[in-house]
Amino acid sequence: MTSETTTALALPQTPLAKGVLELALRVESPAVANHSIRSFLFAQLYAEHAGAKPAADYDTDLLFAACVLHDIGLSDAANGDLRFEVDGADKAAEFLTERGLGAAAVDSVWEAIALHTSEHIADRRGTLCLLTKNGISLDFGRGTEFISDEVGAAIHDRYPRHSMATSLVNIIVEQATARPGKAPLFSPAAELLRIRTQPGEATVLEHAANHGRWGN
Q: What is the average pLDDT value for the chain, to the nearest integer?
């Protein structure tokens, strides 16, 4: 394994990061947890590609928390009455607050998680939102040209995809079917629910993954 690959696979080892990882692995399905971890690894690669430096431009622990917990709203631990992005952001904020993070740091992670499906909006809400959203997009195979085949293969060998997009859609649709308030008009959940009622039509998430570099 080259030094580039070793660096690309590294996760932060602070007590906060270890707690975040433990929570995700405990409450999320393997498909969702692996997607979330890969999103962080891709966010780090994007940051390096874009010239954003840890400590100077973003906090690695906060980026780790935002990426690894961005879909915790799809777990039973955070499945409330609101759209999954907000339920997840609330759960992440509660977890981080319990571990002593200040209000500003907690709010920045909340915002990154709540806005991660909001194209164009997340891009303008600061570096943490931007990196989180782009890390997630890279896991769907969008804009990955700067990532080497070796690094991409190593990430997926360590954290397999497990039909990631289909798994995400299944949970989102199941939640929204049980609690219609989780799919307000024009939300991603509402669109996924609508498409799933059309026989033979792939959802936008599944289409993106199937036609992306990494597959589903």
A: 95
**DSSP letters spanning 94-117:** HHHHHTT--HHHHHHHHHHHHTTT
- Comparing CA positions, the residue from 175, 208, 178, 201 lying closest to residue 189 is 175
Mean pLDDT of 140-158: 95
Q: What is the pTM of this model?
A: 0.95
Q: Domains of the chain: which residue ranges?
A: 12-161
**Cα–Cα distances in angstroms (integers) from residue 2 to residues 10, 90, 92, 150, 182, in the given order:** 13, 39, 34, 9, 44
Is 49 buried (19+), middle (13-18) or exposed (0-12) by CB count in 10 A?
Answer: middle
Question: Given this model, what pLDDT does residue 125 score?
Answer: 95
Per CATH, which fold does 12-161 belong to?
Hypothetical protein af1432 (1.10.3210)
What is the dihedral sign for C-alpha 121, 126, 132, 136? positive
Q: What confidence score (pLDDT) does residue 164 get?
A: 96
Ramachandran angles phi, psi of 54, nearest 5°? -60, 150
Q: In a 3-state reduction of DSSP, which class is residue 1?
A: coil
Q: Say which residue, 2 or 25, is predicted with more confidence.
A: 25
